[in-house]
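Hi everyone, sorry if this is the wrong subforum. Our group has a chain we'd like a structural model of before ordering constructs, and none of us has done structure prediction before. Sequence below.
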Amino acid sequence: MIEGLSLLASSMPDLSVFQYNAVDNIFSMTVATMGAAALFLYMSRAHVDPEYRPALLVSGIVVSIACYHYFMIRHSWHDAYALVDGGYKGPGAAFNDFYRYADWILTVPLLMVELVAVLRLPAAKATSLLTRLVIAAAAMIALGYPGEVIADPARWTERVVWGGLSSIPFFYILYVLWTELTNSLDSQPPAARKLLEIARLVILITWAVYPIAYALGGTPDALAAKAGTADAASGIVGANGVVGLQIGYAIADMTAKAGFGVLIYLIAKAKSTKSGEAAYAA
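Answer:
Right subforum, don't worry. Here is the predicted structure as tokens:
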């Protein structure tokens, strides 16, 4: 891990004011979004039946963890740059992007838990499903991190190899979630079926952002390389790649955690007798 952090410190490119502020603002927005979602989910537990409250509790924990980690990511971003001569340059402090992987280690398995909890599958099936998903999620994150810290375009092949290995459990998770959600539709109340169909699309679309952002993080700045600037000569990943990586991950996390958490609440509310009877009658 230390080697990875030192690599991030040495490979942070210079940024324009617009690029730096774009990332800083999206981090600020992510902290606020996760915090607001946590309050909403904790306070909304009273509006669903008791059997669905654990799903909202877990969802609230997910966004609370994400709120903390994005606060730390933003703090590290501030430390990694200083305004010099009208632009932002790395003063030597490491940008600790491992906060994001620490977040994923905790929240991705919990995302699986909240989804299975709201589906209310038979105990044996739920246990089997969760076991497979949690193991796959752990493998996906463990295999992705070694490639994440490779920001030198000269080591692009290594990054691709780790990304490819991480994609195996990644696509397995998507396949299992898609098929299980599809298979569970007939057993769900009518009011919840449409929401579960939306949940399938949200998972598919938002999770697709992660490999795209991962790829951007190892992309050298083509313009800098063509011009032969210092960044290109030193093999530093391009500024556009770093900005695209950070913004892409933040948007995906907001949607996959806060947005998905609200969707979990809507599914739980639709399945609750106290709020769902009118919908069933309709």
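For your construct planning: Confidence is low (pLDDT under 50) at residues 1-10, 221-236, 275-282. The beta strands are 82-84, 87-89.
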